Amino acid sequence: MELVGLTAGKLAKAADVNVETLRYYEKRGLLPEPPRKESGYRIYPESAVDRLKFIKGAQALGFTLEEIHELLGMRIDTQVNRADVRQRATQKVAAIQIKIDALEQMKQALKHLVHQCHGDGSTAECPILEAIPSFSGEQ
User: Fold this and answer.
1) Is residue 20 part of a domain?
2) Is residue 127 within 8 Å of 97, Cβ to Cβ?
3) How far apart are CA 20 and CA 57, in angstroms?
4) How many CA atoms lie within 13 A of 37 on its CB side?
5) For a tag on the chain, would you pick the N or C end, based on fewer CB atoms within 10 A?
6) What CATH code is carried by the domain that includes residue 18?
7) Quick count: other Cβ atoms within 10 Å of Cβ 131?
8) Residues 15, 47: one domain?
């Protein structure tokens, strides 16, 4: 029986990813390992394109691969409802806001340091370089 579907190269091109990404997603359990032809080539079902687009879209929204694995499971689990998915998205919004707040603090600290440095002279007494060790990332 001849397998019908996409080779890794064709799938990668259709989903705008590289072949190594396919292998990585397989190892992570995000993409089921496909059957192989007698020649050894993997043959992916057409539905793998949509699955890869879902993964890439979820990544673009800030979801981690572990979270994406859970979301993929939620797509097929009939016991999961929209409220469960909504809760995951709400949690991601909160996590993103925390990151935005931290980035804003970094930006303000750097703006303050830039204001302290006039940009002339040697680096021996540079206020920016002198201040960096006092920042621990827990500002």
Assistant:
1) yes
2) no
3) 18
4) 13
5) N
6) 1.10.1660.10
7) 15
8) yes
Buried b (16+ CB within 10 A) or exposed e, 37-71: eeeeebbbbeebbebbebbeebeeeebeeebbbbb
**Any domain includes 76:** no
For the chain, give the mean pLDDT. Answer: 92
Residue in 77, 36, 29 with CA at minimum distance from that of residue 51: 29
Read off the DSSP letter of residue 134: G
Using the 8-state DSSP alphabet, how is residue 6 labeled? B
Cα angle: 72, vertex 77, 83; to 5 degrees = 85
Q: For residue 40, is pLDDT > 90?
A: no
Residue 36, beta-bridge partner list: 42
Output the CA–CA distances (angstroms, integers) from residue 53 to 67, 82, 87, 120, in the order listed: 15, 20, 22, 50
* Structural domain of 4: 1-59
pLDDT of residue 4: 72
Beta strands in 22-137 (DSSP E): none
**Predicted pLDDT at 37:** 84
